[in-house]
Amino acid sequence: MGVTRLRYVATATTVLGLAGYGARELLRSQARTARRLIGKPLGEDAIDADRVWRRRYARPEVRPLRLLVLGDSIAAGLGAERRKETFGARLAIRLAKATHRPVRLRSLAVVGSESSDLSAQIGRLEDGFRADVAVIVVGGNDVTHRIPVSTSVDHLVEALDALQARRIPTVVGTCPDLSALRPVPQPLRSLGGIASRQLASAQREAALARGAHAVSLSRVVGPHFVASPDEMFSLDRFHPSALGYKRTAKAMLPSVLAALGLTEELPDGHHAPR
Questions:
Q1: Considering only the top CATH level, what class is 43-271?
Q2: Cα separation of 127 and 42, whole Å?
Q3: Cβ distance 253 to 135 under 8 Å?
Q4: Is 116 a catalytic site residue?
Q5: Of residues 50, 201, 228, 236, which has the active-site annotation?
Q6: Pairing with 9, which of 27, 75, 231, 249 sits 20 to 30 Å away (CA)?
Q7: Is 239 among the catalytic positions?
Q8: Of the listed 155, 224, 239, 270, which one is catalytic?
Q9: Could you confirm whether 179 is annotated as catalytic?
Q10: CA triplet 210, 268, 137: central angle to 5 degrees?
Q11: Where are the domains of the chain?
Q12: What is the reported pTM?
């Protein structure tokens, strides 16, 4: 290779390196801006909604269904102002209405959790604990903290295996599409959308391979958040509002009923295990 060619390659490499560095710095700056804009107006603790919901369906011969919820701030219901508005409570109420049975909700979801925290949440269960169905919603924090997809999925699989060992049917709500988050500037928002969709796809495949149901939240409820952000998001414009949780719980219900063996028909965006 001639001297001129070597100089050209060296110059091009330097320019590309500087461009890459500039892009990384831009994204870091935008991430700091997004965190400042979002802030923490909701605090860091979700409302405790654990209880038996819809006791009026109680009958001596029928015990309450046991619903276990695991995952992050969405699973925990951060942003809801009343316990009946949290994701877990909304889902428990809908499940009770659909089955005409009371539902005992137990949520171990923790605000800020990543997929790596699922095992610790399951570890809080007593020996011999059984639920009729478990629901996992996780992934957003994995994306914002730039956890590799393969690492996130490995942790999800570990959790699914632990639930399977307890013989608990499970439904996974895959990572929401982060491109719907308006406070996040471009191009960070678009890149977050791409990363969240990649994670969601990998979560779906892992769940189905492990015998769990999967619900593509970006497909079944994402359009509502895009079309009506003022109504669907809470004060921080990041977590769902009461209406957002209502829509999300409604979207999850068909797969929860399927995991319980109460239906075989699933709408678009719901996936049964292979």
A1: alpha beta
A2: 34
A3: no
A4: no
A5: 236
A6: 27
A7: yes
A8: 239
A9: no
A10: 50
A11: 1-38, 43-271
A12: 0.84
